[in-house]
Amino acid sequence: MTKLQLGAFLSQPAEVLAPQLLGWQLFHSSPEGPTAGIIVETEAYLSSGDLACHASRRQTKRNSVMFGPGGYAYVYFTYGLHYCFNITSGPEGRGEAVLIRALEPRVGLELMASRRGSKVRSNRDYCNGPAKLVQAMGITSSHNRHKLWQHPLYLAPPDQSITQIVNTRRIGISQAVDLPLRWYIEGSQFISKP
DNA sequence: AGCAAGATTAGC
DNA sequence: CTAATCTTGCTA
After folding, report:
1. CA of A57 to C1' of B11 (A)
2. Residue A1 has what pLDDT?
3. Which of A110, A142, A144, A159 suits a disulfide with A75, CB 3.0-4.6 Å?
């Protein structure tokens, strides 16, 4: 897939892109070593009619990357201790993004385990939550606004087709709770816990 | 300037 | 079920 094709793919509206990102792979080449995982759970956050979206009211310093072109990292800090990772979507100017909620670990399992610390019991616990995968992959606030077709943090197309996708309401929000904007790979053992 | 809430997680 | 922990953005 060329950069042009990837750019077009990532410039789709969030609710179109989010289900299509399932099966894609996220790679991070960090100084500590490489990690990678398959995207198994996503949520779309929309610019209009979605009060759960950081960009639903107006453009601010924090959410401004969501108003740019698709395919950039939006990393934000929350609850005083956690970071979450989003992929901005298009079209430019709309203020949308796709939250990555879970990965199936593929590369660098030992590194993921050491980053996650003593909390993990199995490889299911490495990346089964939006803040967990950020920690396991070594993603930091320095990756905010990073282009996701460049090293060290980048996307790659699926290397196997996925079976079936499930569409539900989103998790962990208090506004716009009824919108069906969460998708995950049916049967995956690696999605976040309810 | 002050304050409440938050796209969460781990531990009891 | 609740504490942890601090930035952001809304209200005054």
Report:
1. 36
2. 84
3. A144
